[in-house]
Amino acid sequence: MKKILVSTALLAGVLSYAGGFRVSLQGVKQLAMAHTSAHAEDASVAFFNPAGMSFIPSKLSIVAGGFGASNKVTFQNLNTLQSTETDNPIGTPLYAAVAYKPIENLSIGFSFTTPFGSTIQWPSDWEGREMVQKLELKSFYFQPMVSVKLAPWLSFGASYIYAKGKVNWDKAVTQFGGELNIKDEKASGSGYGFGFYFRPDPKLDVSIAYRSPVDMKAKKGTATFQFPSAAIYPLLGLDPSTGQDKFTATLPLVEEYTIGLTYKVTPKWLVSADFNYHGWERYSKLTLDFANAPVGNQADPTILVSPKNFRNSKTFRLGTQYAFTNMIFGRLGAYYDESPYTDENFIPETPSFNTYVITGGLGFKLKQFGVDIAGGYAMPQARDVKNAALGFNGQAKAKAFYFGLGLSYNPF
């Protein structure tokens, strides 16, 4: 019982950090047009493709913005017909970027984004409480970058990614009337990105970009058990005074390939499309190395290896913008985002769905200043949950919406 109790609990908590879903909220203007990428009007292009900085019309560009993201997930046990709904707080993804041209064909820049993360909160006494009660995930990407204009119609750009992450996760341990908290605030990793940006015709922009996976290394993770009797702690290989154990793990974040197009149908009307390919298949297994707890399945009993069955996924995006005047712009979009796992691998820590999203927004340009607002409504498709490994079966539904405010400044 000890091995099942501890290994299942810790695996679920850490896996949810590794499999935290991709958050497509890195530009307000982009979100309004289905989060498409081939837009080089200001520094918000930096996250999507550093090569796009070469085509920003101003020498210096600064952008910043934030979002509110609200979502609810409902799970129904089809045997008992009991339904449970999450009470999630509003998420607040942020972004900021700057791009500067020190010389004509060279651009340098910096991007700050939060591309992975969420907070989900189930009732403390719900039927899946041994998997999760509350889970808070955060990631922060810091990207210095450079772009070189190779020709009037072509540029190449590259970036270095330094990532920081944290997780704070609570679950119940009903066998002993206790709880478990998984916490790590200092996970870090690094990666890179690069891309090409083409403008073969004044009416057409083409963006091709790659962002590498980032292996988030958790070197000082802490698992804290709370039981009515401290006498249980030594039986689980835990610190007898605190009920804690340490663990290390390498937690992969997904790589991404993107092809984006923007075509100016008329001087006032443009249409954009993107295709994203996400390399979730790299989650073939997850290895956790505990300091003392003998919860593993290898020759070393403190090492736990669990096979995973994530699969690569795709996203299809289509957006448009119309200039009502030189100062006011209207935007619309829609996209379809695939879940990276099947019904048999559904997990309540980071619930994921095949999702249709509609978006829209307005942009206001006041000389060098720009103000953008955007919103999105997500329509996740209901799932028949069949996770035999976790003993988790039923039907899951969700709903979500997003809103954002962005500012830009192109002084010269």
UniProtKB/TrEMBL annotation:
Subcellular localization, per the record?
Cell outer membrane
What protein is this chain from?
Aromatic hydrocarbon degradation protein
Bilayer topology: Multi-pass membrane protein
Which organism is the protein's source? Answer: Chryseobacterium angstadtii
Q: Cellular component GO terms, alphabetically?
A: cell outer membrane
Q: Which family does it belong to?
A: Belongs to the OmpP1/FadL family.
Which keywords does UniProt give here?
A: Cell outer membrane, Membrane, Signal, Transmembrane, Transmembrane beta strand
What is the top-level taxon of the source organism?
Bacteria
Q: Tell me the Pfam families matching this sequence.
A: Toluene_X
**InterPro entries per UniProt:** OMPP1/FadL/TodX
Predominant location category: membrane
Gene3D superfamilies under this entry?
Outer membrane protein transport protein (OMPP1/FadL/TodX)
Q: Name one GO molecular function term.
A: long-chain fatty acid transporting porin activity
